[in-house]
Amino acid sequence: MKNYFAAALFMAASIAAAPAVPVYIAGRGGPAAAVSQEGAAATEKASASKAASEHTAEAAAVPSEFADEPYKVLDAATGEVLSVPVRDYVIGAVCAEMPAAFPEEALRAQAVAAHTYAERQRKRERSSPTEELKGADFSNDTSKYQGYFTREQIQKFYGDKFDENYAKVTAAVDEVLPYILTYKDEPAIAAFHSMSSGKTESAENAWGTAVDYLVPVDSSADVSAPKYLDQKHFSRESLKYALETAFPGIVLGDDMSQWVQVLGTSDSGTVLKAQAGDKKVTGSELRSALALRSACFEVSYPDGEAVFTTRGYGHGVGMSQYGAESMANDGSSWQDILKHYYPGCEIGVQKKSP
Question: Are strands 138-139 and 271-276 parallel, antiparallel or unpaired?
Fold first, then answer.
């Protein structure tokens, strides 16, 4: 999925002429089980005073102009292009990307981010088709695109709690289904991640291209999230193998404590510059090479091994899912959450194409 977000930065100009009207981004490891690790955007925190009854009233009547054209989803396993109704897709994406145990307002915020992602990707494919998608808007390959579960996969994933969890997610989706995040009348890049370092990261630091609304904002509640701090230990042999595999031709000296050195970090704690052997690399490259939970890390070398201590989980850009959970628990609405993590964006109805 992070591949999409990085590529989307360079596609922003290409879809500038496409119409959109404003009114509104993975516990551990796998989809939903621990919250999508790559999945993100940011906003100034807005008013938290709107009552749940008002939210329900707003969503009760789906605007007649709502764009409900089914998505075309390539099944990576079979090669078949499936026609998936918008509602079914957003439900499947929320189930895949956020634990159903999260509060309703966080689930609603995730639903809007997931819907926004899908709309932006559809526009992108219409303006510049990807050959491997075979005419689809995106695929269910979660290494490249947003997570998505079919109803059958959701049943298997939730098991005995299917009825309860599915009802909770579908209710959250139904309340916000018409809405997407927009910026300058276009679907925003609704990046999201599991948890930040305590402050989200900018798209510029993470991916090299600045985006007005993907900027650092406070997400200090993340420090209390499960496995916020994590350590990964490497023996001399395993670190050598990982570095030589990731960086062909790298020269490593005899002193292991010099193999990886942090040279510079952002205000959010992301490693921007590092030395790996004789090579200058980024924190993102080291994260990928060493399968770290984030690019916000420190390295130490006790007792003949290398220890990488990470903070947060994911790329750190956009909405922190654990931050959204905390805001919801503190009484913030889904609108408040989105406005906090995606500053400058608006909440809008994705209208039908003329």
Answer: unpaired
Per the DSSP assignment, residues forming a β-bridge with 298 are: 309
Q: What does 165-213 look like in DSSP terms, one character per residue?
A: HHHHHHHHHHHHTTEEEEETTEE----EESB-SSB-B-HHHHHSS--TT
Place of tokens 């994705």: 350
Q: Is the pLDDT of residue 18 over 90?
A: no
Torsion on CA atoms 74, 76, 78, 84, rounded to nearest 10: -30
What is the Cα–Cα distance from 328 to 299, expressed in whole angstroms?
A: 34
pTM of model > 0.85: no
Closest CA to 349 of 8, 62, 51, 50: 62
Distance of alpha carbon 67 from its chain centroid, rounded?
A: 23
How long is the chain? 354
Q: What is the pLDDT of residues 152-166, one digit of tens each?
A: 999 999 999 999 999
- As a whole number, mean pLDDT of residues 319-325 equals 98
Q: Where are the domains of the chain?
A: 2-224+315-349, 229-311
> Tokens for 195?
């948890």
